[in-house]
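Review box. Two proteins, two foldings.
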Amino acid sequence: MPETINGIPLHPLVVHAAVVFIPLTLLGVIVIALRSSWRRVLGWWVLLLSFVTVGFTVLAKETGERLAAEIGVPAQHAELGDTLPIFTAVVFGLLAVLMVVDTWARRRANKRAEALAVVSASSDTGTYRAPLVVIILAVLTVLAALAAFGQAIRVGDSGAKSVWAGVLDEQP
């Protein structure tokens, strides 16, 4: 993997991808947590988005370590940056469990509704109420995504301070 692109270190370029994808994942997680119908339609796409987000945070961490080896290590930024892939991986893991459990619960509810429809023609087969475990998983996933977003802000703030501290003060 190249260390620079057009003379610019790869790390700040990759970081911008993570900065975009982490909030998008948070928004996606909130949307699918709010309504089970949105979870059914968008949930697997949000899971894919979360997977890509994990990839960008890992890539940002790795390129940051390479850049730090060349120019020196801003200690606080490096420590915080090491944790961000963990935060996004937790979101991905919780989201994967949420989607699997929700899909299983939805299929189980549909089978029960079909069985009842055979017995009673008046039953409603289109109604799905998420079980408590799905609701709890959705809340935990939103909280984890909020934590990842907050950690991304902390990492970004420490990185910006390490690069820009004193630079703007020196301007006439």
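Next protein.
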Amino acid sequence: MHRLFEEFIHPVLNASKPRSLLEIGVLHGKNTLNLLRWCAGNGAHLISLDPVEWTGDLPEEFRKGDSNYKYKRGQSRFEDWKIRPEGLEEVFREGLDRYWTCKKKRSLDYFVSPEVDSFDAYLIDGDHNFFTVITELFMIHRFSRKGTAVFLHDVAKTTNARLDEYYEPTLIPYHQIVGPQQGILTALEVVLSKMWG
């Protein structure tokens, strides 16, 4: 999502001036760094959700992942893959962590937890499958208010627009994995049709 920041995300943030942002999915932290630089200049706060284990020059409490979560389980090329979030290393070097809260959990667990809150802006770049994204969107709709900004990654011109990818397939209902509806764009279309169709 970081490649979309200057052209698409930054102008919307400047126009809407959100005070609270929720980022779903961090990966290497490049967009997190962009968001926190914006937060620092605009008096805003970012909460990021990501259950994966990280390596690199980070405080220990940020390295540990959710013990129930295995990134891309069952995909042999990712079996020993470690994520080093260079963007987050820069966050700490620049002292931007004062504008940031990181929760090492999945979005679907966060949205049903007592700590869930509403935000002015949501950025979704987590698990790339119909079930997760449609659930996230319905939960966001439940908590959102007029003027809430929602950004989605990999909606158009990507494989994941119409085809699911499962970062942790054991946490997705089997009937959804074998079901006919797949992809991020499909989830968005269903949500929009149910709300405004």
